Amino acid sequence: MKISIILGSVNDYSKIKEACDFFKKTDVEFELRALSAHRTGEELEDYIRVNDESISLYIAAAGKAAHLPGVIASKTIKPVIGIPLKSSALEGMDALLSIVQMPPGVPVATVAIDGAKNAAILACQILAVSDKTIENKMYLYKKKMAEKVLEAEKKLLREIEMA
């Protein structure tokens, strides 16, 4: 199972690095491309056509008009997760509304503005439905996350008792 992360611009990498780091940490296969829906439309379409069979899920990060996730969703039946990016005076609201308001029949799952890590987690949860290895990794991730929260709570309660 492979995830394809597509950026609208190489300049967006710093905003999605958390997703790449999460996939590396959980040993989930992914590839990264920078293909613009507007400036490299033919290359984007060719990439999807040639690689769609080997890709299980797409993550698309885009700002401003943010057509990239919708264009990808129009070319595949695979799940697409959109990450709206802060890249304009509108602080990412333009991208969020563009991605979340897809027409019937062309859905794009959408995470928070600059929500790359949640996009990676959601992608793994989707793939976990049919991949036991990823399912186990996600259970472990969630367990460790809960343990950190509970440990922080214990520390807080100890500090309050000492005050």
Structural commentary:
By secondary structure, this protein is an alpha/beta fold. The protein has 6 helices and 5 strands; from the N terminus they run βαβαβαβαβαα. It has helices at 13-26, 41-51, 68-75, 93-100, 116-128, 132-162; strands spanning 3-7, 30-34, 57-63, 80-85, 109-110. Strands 2-1-3-4-5 form a 5-stranded parallel sheet, sandwiched between helices. Helix 1 (13-26) runs parallel beside helix 5 (116-128) and helix 5 (116-128) crosses helix 6 (132-162). The longest helix has 31 residues, at 132-162. It is globular and about 65 Å long.
Which runs of at least 5 residues are low in confidence (pLDDT < 50)? Answer: none
Structural class computed from helices and strand pairing:
alpha/beta
Q: How many alpha or pi helices?
A: 6
User: Which outline best applies?
Assistant: globular
Mean pLDDT: 96
Please count the beta strands (DSSP E, at least 2 residues each): 5
Encode the helix/strand succession as letters. Answer: EHEHEHEHEHH
Summarize the SSE layout with pairings:
Blueprint: E1 3-7, H1 13-26, E2 30-34, H2 41-51, E3 57-63, H3 68-75, E4 80-85, H4 93-100, E5 109-110, H5 116-128, H6 132-162
Parallel strand pairs: 1-2, 1-3, 3-4, 4-5
Helix pairs in contact: 1-5, 5-6
